Amino acid sequence: MNDTIRIDEAAGSAGQAPALTAEAFREAVRAKLKYAVGKDPSRATAKDWSMALSLAVRDQVVERWFESTKASHAGQKKHVYYLSMEFLIGRLLNDAVCNLGIEAQVRTACAELGIDYQAQLEQESDAALGNGGLGRLAACFMDSMSTLGIPAHGYGIRYDHGLFRQRFHDGWQVEEPEDWLVSSRAWEFERAEMAYLVKFGGQISFDGHGATYWRADETVKAVAYDTPIAGWKGRHVNTLRLWASRPVEVLDLGRFNHGDYMSAAEKTIRAETISRVLYPDDTTAEGKELRLKQEYFFTSASLQDILRRYLEDNDDIRKLPEQVAIQMNDTHPAIAVAELMRILADDYRLTFPEAFEITRQCLSYTNHTLMPEALERWNTNLFRKVLPRHMQIIEWIDYHHLAEVQGRNLPVSLDNIRIIEWGSEIKMGSLAFVGSRRVNGVSALHTELMKQTVFKDYHLLYPDRIVNETNGITPRRWLYECNPGLRALLLEAIGDGWVDNLEKIEDAAKFATDASFRDKFAAAKQANKVRLAAEIERRIGLRVDPTALFDVQIKRMHEYKRQLLNVLETIALYQAIRRGPGAEWTPRVKIFGGKAAPGYQIAKRIIKLANDVARVVNNDPIIGDRLKVAVLPNYNVSLAEVIIPAADLSEQISTAGMEASGTGNMKLALNGALTIGTLDGANVEIAERVGPDNIYIFGLTADDVAGLRQRGYNPNATIDSDPTLKGAIDAMVNGTFSPDDHGRFNEVADRLWHTDWFLVTADFQSYFQTQRTVDVDYRDKTRWTERSILNTTKVGWFSSDRTIRGYSKDVWGVEPNF
Ligand code: GPW
Q1: Catalysed reaction per UniProt (predicted)?
Q2: How far apart are CA 439 and CA 452, in angstroms?
Q3: Which of 85, 87, 129, 134 to mutate to test the pocket of ligand 1 (most atoms within 8 A of CB)?
Q4: Cβ distance 80 to 812 under 8 Å?
Q5: What total number of domains does the chain contain?
Q6: pTM of the model
Q7: Which of 163, 369, 376, 595 to mutate to test the pocket of ligand 1 (most atoms within 8 A of CB)?
């Protein structure tokens, strides 16, 4: 049965989305339900329909995918490879439908089949193969590379279990395994024949004639799973290739036949463990053996695949850099430096100096943090045990690099540029830097700090290597798809040029003073808030007033992101309202969402604090609708898609100098939220673009923070001199929010009193005052909407399309096709 759909070839060749009729699509879904899912309509569950629908849409994507692959081969252009431990993709059905421009037909077909499109979308599980910003950035980049027609592959790990599901039990975070594969399989193709061997451990020997042998003591097979990623209008489709780890032999038959069933399966379990789970730590490096194996596993398989593809059309391995640009998303794939050298030297018999030259022309490295606890270091003993050959290669690189530098007579400290520190730890950031063509930061401020701090000496040695590529977000998912109300308004006002050229959204800035546009803009926001209010009630049973100010902080729970500052302000506001309920208050709903790493005790306690505060505030009859606190469990991409369009105020309140960029800040501003934030990461650039009247900046600058920390900050005096702050901290420890356990937050308070490394107390007053200005400003609805429109229309520069154009030019040396 041929159940693919005839596409209008004339339209297709013009680079436009081919026409697809609703009837043809409806029949395709019917056929999928019957022949691929194996169900009769009368028996089909919602999941069955959703699968049939996804498979029918997938066929549409596959058509363009083949064309793109053929065109890339024929074009013989340089190919981009994006290596990332994390891809936080989220759901794919609506994304594919919107990118292909077939939403109308799909909706009509669904209606005719008697199924609800929206409900179908919610059947799909959220592919959470990432922790937070870094993984979501990789997903936005995949979207943009397809949209720009850049031939590219994303490479990562096909974890059986992505990021844990978060539940609250009595306000405490509880982690549960998630099972995305149960319903997301519709989008991937297993490539059983695309498999590579990856070795670990063992011994190295030399034959005396220049050949090196690595006799490993463990070998696993990396099997490819491909997901097509369609760009805007389906003009180009790239591949996300994720590797699953499998045993080389399925079963130890010898042991099995001896009745030793358990140990017969042992190798299988050992091998499959490598791609079993995503490490749930965000911006903290854990020096665990399994993590190292995961990093090497996907990097090695990806490099083997890259070289195989290169050699299909080329025969001179030395010309690899002309065809191949490999991006390392942070240091997680930094072992690529040693692995590519190993392959070139040991398999292709190039000398180390030759191999090193080629390697550093192919690879580039993106740094996403300067926080010491996040910079990966590997113990040399562990490393030598798992990757003995790579240890030798890294020792060679370190030695030769130092020798090269010593000859240059520059004022750098050799200790600062060593890759192997004290002979006992490998600094992966240093390895990545030395092995790269370009190294980039992710916002202007962050790149500047890279040059001044962590990579200071390297920057002296290689002044052209560090470049800035400020992060961006895809306007397809983060406006067109998640905010249909605003999308429709923009389409009506300025057409659709902004969808793949987001700076055009500025054409709508002139409507900020147009009363009728403003009303429609406000109405779209209001509808989104009603939708979110319903979701809040559904999830946590809390009723909120959808006309209140929606104040949103959604991101991983981390001390440096300072959810605690927000909670303290909530407490202080609660106390103020209680003292004077008759005053003029601006009704507010504080919305929190975010997971804490399972081992991050203090972050988990702050979640508990937020929940305890929420319980007390939400049930206090004196407070009523003046203040509500909604702590939403299991924040993920899909929940973000509901929260972001509904936000009025975006909390970006990290300690200045600590958030490399942030990307939630961009998503919220694009959807019309005003930012309250510090001059940190990309907030600085957002402020430049929206202008000082349309953003609330408060607190210490990165320079202030550095100075204060150097002088030694004493929070005591600050707390004692600010009764509002002191009142809030006191309430935290006197049992107001934890009557069952007065001591529950003692440790949190002690940290504030004694060290306060993240300078929560230092910024409190400025933050609290700024929030009161927000209260007053929000009451002027006309003016607020005007400023909200100016946020939406002035942040077009933060499209990930712009970011990818930057990488193409400054880092990869490729030319976008669109
Ligand atoms: F530690 N980021 C993240 F730098 O989400 F590797 N996970 C991580 O493990 C790291 C960084 C790492 C984030 C940054 O914290 C955020 O500021 C940035 O916007 C994002 O990466 C994308 O660049």
Answers
A1: [(1->4)-alpha-D-glucosyl](n) + phosphate = [(1->4)-alpha-D-glucosyl](n-1) + alpha-D-glucose 1-phosphate
A2: 14
A3: 134
A4: yes
A5: 2
A6: 0.97
A7: 369
